[in-house]
Structures
1.
Amino acid sequence: MASTVVIPYSPRPLQQQIHDQLKRWSVVVCHRRFGKTVFAINHLLRDCLTSSKERPRYAYLAPTYKQAKTIAWDYLQHYSRPIPGIVINQSELRIDYPNGGRIQLFGCDTPDALRGIYLDGCILDEYAQMPSSLFGEVLRPALSDRKGWALFIGTPKGKNAFHTLYEHADNDDQWLAVVHKASDTGIVDEEELKDARGIMTDEEYEQEYECSWSAAIRGAVYGKEMAACIRDDRIGFIPVEPSIPVHTFWDLGIADSMTIWFVQAVGKEIRFINYYEHTGEGMAHYINYLDQFKRDHGITYGDHFAPHDIEVRELSTGKSRRDTALKMGIGFRVVPQHKVADGIEATRRLFNRFWFDEKRCKHGIECVSQYRYDYDEKRGVFRDTPLHDWASHCADALRQLAMGWSEVLTQKERDMSPVVAKSDFEVF
């Protein structure tokens, strides 16, 4: 006779309600202390253990690998330990189960670890802090073969991709959309909520406990500046002017994202007409993209700006990425090395001149909005340095603009630049 295994999890009524309501695609927005991570881990565990599929695979994702380990790993081990025959892999944050199933924890800061796998279900915890491209480019294909499901959970962080996804779910019968505010659930008692209101700012309280989409992002580096952009209607349709040269500003990465802002200067206006980001590709890929953008919009390029590390030479070849790019037909101007804080201040000084195309720069706008200072939980203060996550590469490219920007390059400066016909790129 088969033995019964009891998992030490007793869901609250609202948690049970969500367990019962979930569809293939679900968005659950809930306040702090709702118990979303415990709920999520146990939903994965139940589905994994009861699956009739061969070798079922499930994933829990947090914004970073460190967060996944800190937030969810202890929970997954705790609720799995009563199950006989499990194998815990501490180094890979993975547990294998007797039925051939597996649950593994991932961070969105290492998206390549998710490529090529298949999934029967996944939880995206704190989706508001994840790159919006992750699901479409990586996870949705992984769920296709076995018609797996996805559950997006978290607390709002402004009107970003999580907000867009929630609105889509709320208007699509194939999706589930649920919001649970602290004032409605009764999970956190009124005395505790009153104390929280007394300590937190109104924006923090509304965001964390009342699931407000419009509250300011806590610790946002450019929070005031982005709010001014929205207030002044500087985010919308921005035409590409073929007669005006397009300058590009880069942040370099290989394993990390490579990011590019496309900018035109019209009078005092600094117009962001396009943003591109990709990972895992060589320089040829990005040069091809620039060439395609040029053909599509009939533009010519001005100058291309990159951070100082473009001049670092690889030990295997003795060549820098600047050398490689030059051979492929693009000459970079190098932005001098600088302190991050100085770059941020320079960006803030220019921000009132920024205009963003809402569609072509959508992901870039999201990244700049989400770029925030790291929070020291022990000391209860924000650190002086921004958090390094999926949003930081885009913000770094923006910083290159601020530190490399000049209204008009002198002829002497142009003579110092590499002599390259930047209007023609070799197609690879």
Note: Residues 5 and 83 are 6 Å apart (CA to CA).
2.
Amino acid sequence: MTPSQRVYWFEQRARPTRELPPLNSDTKAEIVVVGGGVAGLACAQALSEQGRKVLLLERDACGSGASGRSSGFITPDSEMELSDLVRHRGLERAKQLWEFVVSGVDDIRANIERHGIDCDFQVQDSLFLANSPKGASIVNREHDARMNVGYDSTLYDARTIRSVLNSKECCGGVRYAGTFGINAYRYCEAMRDILRESGVTIHERSCVTEIGEGRVKANGFTVRADAVVICVDRFLPELGLLPNEVYHVQTFLAASAPLTDSQVSTIFPESRLMVWDSDLIYEYFRLTGDNRLLLGGSSILYAYARKESKAAPPQILRKMRAFVRRKFPHTPVEIEYFWPGLIGVSKDLLPLAAQDVQRPTISLVSGATGLPWAAALGRYMAEKIVSRRSDFDDEFDPHRRFAVGPSLQRFIGKPNAFALSHGVVKLLR
């Protein structure tokens, strides 16, 4: 069977989508937020809660970019595990960063519960999985880091892991609670409507093409404002911002046909989990509310490709099918949906968030590798504008030192520079 290359989440709308009108005249606003993904919506929400008059511009529809195409994993663990943060930043600072991203998890959960958002909210523990003896040592360090910081953690070895994940291809894992999965597209749709009802002006189909001090231009019209916050992730270089500091990685997602409850129990004998492994280009999976197995992964050939794949490559589809057969030979899984997506990244996998030194009315966010990071960063930038918050400015400084500097990047090229940097961050452990 050839799977559909439509994004599964886009097919699961709670109701017919009604787009908001595009910007069609010059106007003024107190604060303009550019980008209608999780980061932009979180920023607009935090600013609105502080009584600021906000106008949000989205080039397509809110949630239609990286946020709405994502796996919907709501966990503080994304590209950087806690043990990575401890190794690079020390125990105390690692805990502060982890609590920062946990605040993003909490904000998303609070919005869902407070507003009753219908977004396939699935409470599932996180499971960081080891596929090899080397992976087991990484998982063990993650467990140690969690215990040292004072977080709950359950460690499994190659034998006990079978009690929660029925696969012979596992050498261990570490598990923790407080996480969940969502349909992030529907979450963004709902937050768009909630913010609009609270007084935020939102224009969709409004592509920003120019940014200046205290102004932006979209659809040929100018919006003047006291402050501008750019939350467009990997598209920052297209606006002339951080062209050397922002790149992307490409991943692919697949959704299976619905499984029966008995089939689900052959994969997850105890309870449903959100799972990813310790490889640099890792595989990840979880269950949706309608019992579809959601799978994600990539390959070195496609992860750092300069351009997004217009169609999901057959090689990746074959790789995903082989992964499922190898991992769960006892459970037939038929892939029905398969689509590509890109996320913005920095060279050390921590986000970029700052005010423009030359143009202080302009702030930006990029490299939020995970929806909780995006939510936390959106609020951070709002608080930076309102109350001059600065406690993580050094960590998120776009011009901080990276493993691969500008000279080497010019020599080996941007894709290789980012791949090498990520290898240094993740593999030298």
Note: The chain has two domains: 8-70+184-246+348-398, 123-177+248-341.
3.
Amino acid sequence: MSAEAILLLQIALLIFTGRLLGEIMQRLRQPSVMGQLLGGVLLGPSVLGAFWPSLEHLLFPPVGEQKAMIEAIAQFGIILLLLLTGMETDLKLVRRVGRAAVCIAIAGVSVPFVAGVVFGNFMPESLLPSPEHRLVASLFLGTALAISSVKIVSMVVRDMGFMRRDIGQVIIASAVMEDTIGWVIIAITFSLARQGSVDLRSVSLSILGTGLFLLISLTVGRVAVYKLIRWTNDYLLSDAAVISVILLITGVMALITYFIGVQTVLGAFVAGILIGESPFLTKHIDQQLRGLILGFFAPVFFGMAGLTTDLSILAQPSLLALTIGLIAVASLGKFGGAFLGATIGGFDAEKPSPSAVP
């Protein structure tokens, strides 16, 4: 088959399995993203590759160019997913729960990071890349356990119907902050791994650039986005002109954060916040974007995440034991950190949310 035919087949399979299993998960009162991830696991080396490797290689050939095409679609999809998450974020609610979100983000990164570093220092040498690199390996392990996947978090919050509740706004805001903090930690860890010391200049530029980006976006950027969408709505006659401008704004802001040195999803999320405040964002446009993102791009991205998972390595007892230990440390560390942060931040889980949508 040609590369184009294989790409279309891959997309069709990921959408079909993701939507089917996502529907089943929702009927079991679980987030649909679990079904989309599971769909990728079933189509990947963990299941299909284990029982019918020739078919798995035919459907998902390990060719660089072929993988790059489907991964490009998946990555663009996650940018759009964070755009949608930003559009559904209410800054008034975020300001009200801002202290709790900041405390949860800081504690939610710090506690699992420390737990991961401690865990790494007690790992057997046989599981390390080399005994003399234990510190760097421990730092990478702590970083991996500290960062939350804001993509999965946003899907879970949406599927559970919490986007317009205080708890949902706290979760999303803290997840975005944790992701941003995580990239700073990654920069520091990479500097240690490469040079044996921290490149303070690059880390400082990344932090300063992120701060300036947020400041400019929420002041000058807010006015610019409003005027651009308004001008497009008033003067352009072509079909879906406003949607095209929304996608252009999202792409530009995602690129800015990429060049700053943090994830593109931060730029897409902030773009969504600014676009969501526009009075020209009609319900029709919102539904068009939502249908495209959740119906097409989300199953492809989360299916790709499942495809990259190879559970067959857990047949090795040492790796299985390591995995169980990491899951336990990550779960306890993240839950403990979030609970500690919420307590310090004054977030009362027992208080009913006045912003809840019935």
Note: DSSP finds 15 helices and no strands in the chain.
